[in-house]
């Protein structure tokens, strides 16, 4: 029989649950930087796993030595990147006037005038077309400044973050077997094997995915760079770098990158004849980027997205599309890793379910 005391106790428990949940969410919000460090360290640990296994199995390194060697490898890679590439990126960014919004806008206006002059010669009223479409009002010229300045600010404040990430990553690598043993003690006995098997499979699949993704971005960057160098773009490195980073966003990123490459190529050629140099060079660059994307979409991406996480390309496309509609750009970026984790967990806990068995038959 339900009494007033039972109802009041239920209300109190519900309020307590809401209060505890709110406090927990607030606490997580306050330590979001630490959570980011943990996530980055986990990703680095996954990426480093093949190297760690090679050091342990082939070279017979101990846990501490393997972890130290791996961290040293990451540090050397980072220092090499800074020494080789960052000065080049900064100098080319200055050449491209990405740090000067007014100069960038002035160059864009000059480019627009060149286009308008060309189309007037061809008897097309471009000014009327632009006013009716309101294209110019859609451009935010301060975006480039904010983007570059945010990168510079991040690099200036990342010292403590790097120390924290490398420190956490070291212990993730060194004590991963210990963490697994401790997890066995904490986890319920009935689900212990399932959870540990899920973690092992997720670690294996995501390691393949992140390593493959880095390889894919490197290949795309090199191909973009070759296209820009062929057509004499003086800002080839920074444009190729930015467009390759945008490739992290599935499907949408390459489109944005190609558009950005076209605009920046036109701006970098200000002062030259529009009809004989600016327009043909921009068209050739865009065609070259489209060819690179065709290569990436038909060769690199299927291998990375499908084979590395053992999913069908159509399955991957639908998951990314749904995630993009639901959660935007961030959802598209994390769609494949999260979907892979869910598939592994579902297979371990519901192996006899017909729908789950169909979705996870490749795992």
Distance between the amino and carboxyl termini: 50 Å
The run of helices and strands is: HHHHHHHHHHHHHHH
Alpha-beta content class: mainly alpha
β content, as a range?
A: under 5%
Radius of gyration: 26 Å
Number of separate strands: 0
Largest sheet features: none
Oligomer: single chain
Gross morphology: globular
Poorly predicted regions are none
The portion of residues assigned to helices is over 70%
Please state the average pLDDT score.
75
Question: Would you write up a description of this structure?
Answer:
With 363 residues, the protein is an all-alpha fold. It has a domain at 7-84 and 150-172. The protein has 15 helices and no strands. The protein is globular.
What topology does this entry show?
Blueprint: H1 4-30, H2 32-57, H3 63-84, H4 86-95, H5 101-121, H6 126-133, H7 142-156, H8 158-174, H9 176-186, H10 192-230, H11 236-246, H12 252-268, H13 274-307, H14 313-349, H15 354-359
Essential attributes:
363 residues; mainly alpha
Summarize the structure.
The chain is mainly α.
């Amino acid at each position: 029989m339900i009494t007033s005391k039972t109802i009041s106790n239920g209300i109190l428990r519900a309020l307590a649950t809401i209060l505890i949940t709110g406090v927990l969410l607030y606490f997580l919000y306050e330590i979001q930087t630490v959570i980011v460090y943990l996530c980055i360290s986990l990703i680095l640990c996954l990426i480093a796993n093949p190297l760690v296994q090679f050091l342990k199995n082939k070279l017979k390194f101990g846990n501490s030595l393997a972890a130290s060697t791996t961290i040293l490898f990451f540090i050397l890679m980072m220092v090499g990147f800074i020494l080789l590439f960052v000065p080049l990126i900064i100098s080319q960014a200055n050449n491209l006037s990405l740090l000067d919004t007014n100069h960038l806008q002035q160059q864009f206006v000059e480019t627009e005038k060149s286009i308008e002059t060309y189309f007037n010669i061809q008897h097309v009223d471009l000014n009327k077309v632009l006013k009716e479409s309101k294209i110019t009002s859609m451009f935010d010229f301060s975006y480039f400044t904010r983007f570059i300045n945010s990168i510079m600010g991040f690099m200036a404040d990342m010292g403590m973050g790097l120390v924290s990430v490398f420190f956490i990553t070291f212990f993730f690598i060194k004590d991963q077997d210990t963490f697994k043993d401790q997890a066995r003690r904490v986890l319920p006995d009935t689900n212990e094997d399932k959870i540990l098997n899920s973690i092992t499979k997720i670690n294996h699949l995501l390691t393949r995915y992140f390593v493959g993704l880095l390889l894919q971005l490197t290949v795309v960057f090199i191909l973009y760079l070759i296209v820009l160098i062929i057509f004499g773009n003086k800002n080839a490195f920074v444009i190729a770098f930015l467009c390759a980073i945008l490739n992290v966003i599935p499907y949408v990123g390459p489109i944005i990158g190609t558009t950005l490459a076209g605009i920046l190529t036109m701006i970098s050629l200000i002062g030259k004849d529009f009809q004989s140099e600016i327009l043909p060079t921009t068209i050739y660059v865009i065609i070259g980027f489209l060819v690179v994307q065709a290569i990436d979409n038909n060769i690199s991406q299927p291998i990375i997205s499908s084979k590395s996480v053992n999913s069908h390309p159509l399955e991957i496309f639908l998951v990314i599309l749904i995630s993009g509609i639901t959660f935007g750009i961030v959802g598209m970026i994390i769609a494949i890793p999260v979907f892979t984790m869910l598939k592994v967990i579902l297979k371990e806990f519901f192996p006899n379910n017909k729908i789950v068995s169909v979705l996870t038959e490749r795992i």
